[in-house]
Specification:
It comes from Streptomyces finlayi. The chain has no helices and 30 strands. By secondary structure, the chain is mostly beta strands.
Length: 427
């Protein structure tokens, strides 16, 4: 999996001097799905996470800043190649239960320490905010998170809670406010996206039929990325603004012509990945990953004849095998072979262990990977490796595999034709 972790505070950090309430780290079963191009199966593991807040006793109407720290991610670096620093952006959600229900979007900065090959991912943090809308006990639990990596290509590794909700990590107690409460709220379909992509924003408890604007948020004011339309009769809406401003750290929605927290909702944490510098244009294309496959030039090998009473080496050459690894991910491949006994007339046989090979492998120029030939020696019914390529940050290419074959025939083997089946497996 290409997923890293980050350390440090998020983009919606709590104000200076804020004191987080008591909380507890919790463990929960997680399923992380590496990008399809990686060729790696889903990772079932345990995430350890902790939620903290800047105010454990807020008043209804207050904005609470939450920090979601993944103390121990569910998976480690799956390849033996070190991964560089500052290539990933984490996003996620946490769940509210009790007096107030819903979810809170959180994001983290594009920052991480280098990760050694096959090493554990370090901790990372994400932050976000929510407005308290009801008095009483509010319980906060970790939710799904996603790791976006920007190394060689833009990839996502989503990790989901297997048995939601996860255990409660933080509890706050809210008291009633002295005036009307702004219950307007927004949720995002995703917490990150590329510049120019649209994000789905769903609003609730806005004034029916009012005009509402959904916009990017740069930390102090709305950005120019805006969309304005009317709220439905039930007070809800779903808008899909296009976000391009690189200063965006969140999304807000508000009634009227300008931002007013009393008549709005947010900011909900949102970050751009693969930022475009000012006064430039991003031009995108797509290189689609393919499959791992092999072909061979024939299905029959004729070995040289040997004499009864002398026996010895019956030799020949494996039909050339071409391996095409067009997946474009970090996984290597292995080509193995195993052979049956060689059966002849009247039930006579030459044992499978008497067949040996001398492998050879050539790599097509420009291929990211370099293949290695297997060891010279017996093939047998247990099998042996013919050729392989290692895991790496970026693999693939085209390869031709050959082998010299030699069947050691005992000297007094019954005369006649003998045949065995060599099965090749690519994985």
């Amino acid at each position: 999996m290409t997923a890293l972790a980050v350390a440090g505070g998020g983009v919606l950090a709590p104000p200076a001097g804020a004191t987080a309430g008591a909380s507890a780290a919790v463990d929960f079963a997680t399923r992380c799905v590496p990008p399809p191009i990686a060729g790696i199966p889903p990772i079932e593991g345990t995430t350890t996470a902790q939620i903290t807040v800047d105010n454990t006793t807020p008043t209804v109407g207050d904005t609470v800043t939450v920090t979601y720290k993944v103390v121990k991610p569910a998976a480690s670096n799956p390849v033996d190649l070190p991964l560089p620093a500052d290539i990933m952006t984490p996003t996620g959600k946490l769940t509210l239960a009790g007096a107030q229900t819903g979810s809170v979007t959180v994001t983290g900065p594009k920052k991480n320490a280098p990760v050694p090959g096959l090493g554990e991912f370090p901790p990372f943090e994400m932050t976000g905010t929510f407005v308290v809308t009801a008095p009483g006990e509010i319980r906060l639990s970790p939710g799904d998170y996603n790791i976006h990596t920007s190394y060689l290509m833009e990839l996502d590794t989503p990790c989901t809670v297997k048995n939601p909700p996860a255990p409660v990590s933080e509890t706050i107690t809210a008291t009633g406010g002295g005036g009307p409460v702004n219950e307007r709220a927004i949720t995002l379909g995703t917490a990150s996206g590329k510049p120019g992509e649209r994000v789905t924003v769903t609003g609730t408890r806005f004034t029916p039929d009012a005009e509402v604007t959904v916009a990017g948020w740069n930390g102090s004011a709305p950005t120019a990325d805006k969309i304005t339309s009317k709220v439905a009769a039930g007070g809800g809406f779903t808008f899909r603004p296009k976000i391009t401003d690189p200063s965006t750290i969140g999304i807000v929605a508000f009634e009227g012509t300008s931002w007013d927290p009393a008549k709005g909702a947010g900011p909900a944490a949102y970050s751009l990945v693969g930022d475009v510098p000012p006064l430039s244009q991003r031009i995108d294309t797509l290189v689609k990953g393919g499959s791992l496959s092999m072909t061979q030039v024939g299905d029959t090998v004729e070995l040289t004849a040997v004499d009864f009473g002398k026996g010895g080496a019956s030799t020949g050459a494996l039909n050339t095998v071409t391996v095409k690894d067009f997946r474009g991910g970090p996984a290597g491949w292995s080509l193995t072979g195993r052979v049956t006994d060689f059966t002849g007339p009247g039930g006579a046989a030459v044992d499978a262990g008497e067949l040996s090979w001398t492998p050879a492998c050539a790599t097509k120029a420009g291929s990211p990977s370099t293949c290695a030939a297997g060891s010279e020696g017996a093939v047998g019914s247990a099998g042996a490796t013919l050729a392989s390529t290692p895991n790496a940050a970026f693999t693939g290419g085209e390869f031709t595999v050959d082998a010299g074959l030699s069947l050691d025939v005992p000297e007094f083997t019954a005369p006649g034709a003998y045949s065995g089946v060599l099965t090749l497996t690519l994985s």
